[in-house]
Amino acid sequence: MDANERRQEILNILSKSERPIKGTDLSEQLEVSRQVIVQDIAILRARGENILATPQGYLIPKIHEKRRLTKTIVCTHKNNIELEEELRTIVDLGGRVIDVIVEHPLYGEIKSQLQIGSRHDLELFIDSLETTKAEPLSSLTGGVHLHTIEVDDEDTLRRIKEVLLEKKYLIKED
């Protein structure tokens, strides 16, 4: 299989998948190194393919028939325990955490895809956080960060905001 055929196969695999796929899984399936997959994904993204890199792996976002509301909220937490509780609150109340965004004094906006829509996704994220011993982006800004979240309706958004405010994770809009 040449490089173009392999890249097309990556697109086929990601298009058919309902879940993110790790680069190591793609490399095993296509019998190449993980670095080759990383390079192929970069080339595909440069060509305009909508491939997201999430902590759970690569994915091509699906267009859902039912339109969901997408909103940005401003949050804060002091440590990784609070980070987990904040994300769990959003997911348990029916939200999907699309990304995290921080404002860095040198680089400006830094954004990372999270795509956490279930307790299972959250467990994978927290396991990765603990295993890699990496610091979350919010550590760059004293805990302050934004999330883009997806919800089914305004009522779900209202409930999420109320509970996050009660737990002191939501920075209230004036």
Describe it.
The chain has 174 residues and is α+β, with helices and mostly antiparallel strands. 43% of the residues lie in helices and 22% in strands. The chain has six helices and six strands, in the order αααβββαββαβα. The strands form two sheets. It has a four-stranded antiparallel sheet with strand order 3-6-4-5. A two-stranded antiparallel ribbon has the order 1-2. Helix 1 (3-16) crosses helix 3 (34-46). The chain is elongated and about 55 Å long.
- Residue runs with pLDDT of under 50 for 5 or more positions: none
Relative helix content = 40-55%
Question: What's the main sheet like?
Answer: 4 strands, antiparallel
Please state the average pLDDT score.
91
According to DSSP, the number of beta strands is 6
Structural shape: elongated
Structural class by sheet pairing and helices: alpha+beta
Summarize the structure.
The chain has helices at 3-16, 23-30, 34-46, 80-92, 119-132, 154-166; strands at residues 52-54, 57-59, 69-75, 96-104, 108-116, 145-151. The protein has 174 residues and is of the alpha+beta class.
Features:
single chain; 174 residues; alpha+beta; four-stranded antiparallel beta sheet; 6 helices; 43% helix; 22% strand; elongated
Helix and strand topology:
Layout: H1 3-16, H2 23-30, H3 34-46, E1 52-54, E2 57-59, E3 69-75, H4 80-92, E4 96-104, E5 108-116, H5 119-132, E6 145-151, H6 154-166
Antiparallel strand pairs: 1-2, 3-6, 4-5, 4-6
Helix pairs in contact: 1-3, 2-3
